[in-house]
């Protein structure tokens, strides 16, 4: 199994989680936005697994993040909880993980990632809310009824936030942050669960806020990181005076949002 270790000198960010991570490059997702912001500054890898719960994550985390990798991540953003919070199925099958086990699984994930390297920093994302009505409308006939409620999301979100406080880890309370927008229920999701572009923008805003405020040395905020090969060159675009060049290596004019 190949780990996430890379090379090239750039910081390495890994997004680790379930479908919220796997789909984070779809629909102007938060992963793709971060990749654009950190272009020429950091390498961003996805280790996302749709349908997974925290139990499956603990079973394979050593394969995904091997301790003997040549390079360990500078940052891991972790999301599990939405699938864990789904209701118990009478068959015993399905993604549901009881809340006490979820708490222990998240503690285990956190402690393992902390043990990788002194340079490895961690941000957890808590369980966001869901649009229950839209979720029911989009449920496939191939699946049994999905018992997914906002109340359960709240419980698992609070558990994630509390375990991060206990372990002194950075955490983004998505359950709260998403609902700060009045129209969150209709604009933040594509199917009632997964983020639309508007929902992803909230995730990115909160991730950048954490990175800007974190007292990490060196800082991992995008404005603090050097731009790769940013030196002036005679091969840059020619300026209007016809005698010099214009270095556009750090221009952000192409972005719809000028991120802080």
TrEMBL record:
InterPro entries the record matches: GDSL, Iah1-like, SGNH_hydro_sf
Keyword entries, A-Z: Hydrolase
Origin superkingdom: Eukaryota
Entry GO MF terms: hydrolase activity, acting on ester bonds
Record Pfam families: Lipase_GDSL
PANTHER family: GDSL ESTERASE_LIPASE CPRD49, ISOAMYL ACETATE-HYDROLYZING ESTERASE 1
Protein family (similarity comment): Belongs to the 'GDSL' lipolytic enzyme family.
Protein's recorded name: GDSL esterase/lipase CPRD49
Organism (species): Acorus calamus (Sweet flag)
Gene name tied to this protein: CPRD49
């Amino acid at each position: 199994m190949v780990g996430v270790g890379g090379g090239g000198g750039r910081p390495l960010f890994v997004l680790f989680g379930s479908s919220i991570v796997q789909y984070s490059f779809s629909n102007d997702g938060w992963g793709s936005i971060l990749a654009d912001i950190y272009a020429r500054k950091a390498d961003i890898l996805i280790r996302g697994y749709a349908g997974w719960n925290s139990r499956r994550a603990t079973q394979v985390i050593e394969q995904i993040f091997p301790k003997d990798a040549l390079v360990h991540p500078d940052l891991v953003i972790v999301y599990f909880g939405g699938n864990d919070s789904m209701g118990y199925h009478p068959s015993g099958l399905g993604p549901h993980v009881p809340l006490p086990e979820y708490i222990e699984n998240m503690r285990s994930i956190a402690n393992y990632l902390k043990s990788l390297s002194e340079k490895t920093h961690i941000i957890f994302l808590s369980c966001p809310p869901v649009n229950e009505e839209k979720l029911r409308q989009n449920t496939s006939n191939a699946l049994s009824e999905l018992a997914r409620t906002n109340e359960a999301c709240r419980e698992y979100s609070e558990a994630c936030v509390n375990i991060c406080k206990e372990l002194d880890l950075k955490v983004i309370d998505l359950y709260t942050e998403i609902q700060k927008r009045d129209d969150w229920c209709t604009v933040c999701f594509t199917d009632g669960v997964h983020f639309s572009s508007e929902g992803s923008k909230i995730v990115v805003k909160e991730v950048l806020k954490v990175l800007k405020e974190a007292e990490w040395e060196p800082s991992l905020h995008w404005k603090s990181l050097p731009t790769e090969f940013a030196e002036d060159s005679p091969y840059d675009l020619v300026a209007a005076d016809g005698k010099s060049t214009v270095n556009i290596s750090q221009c952000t004019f192409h972005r719809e949002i000028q991120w802080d």
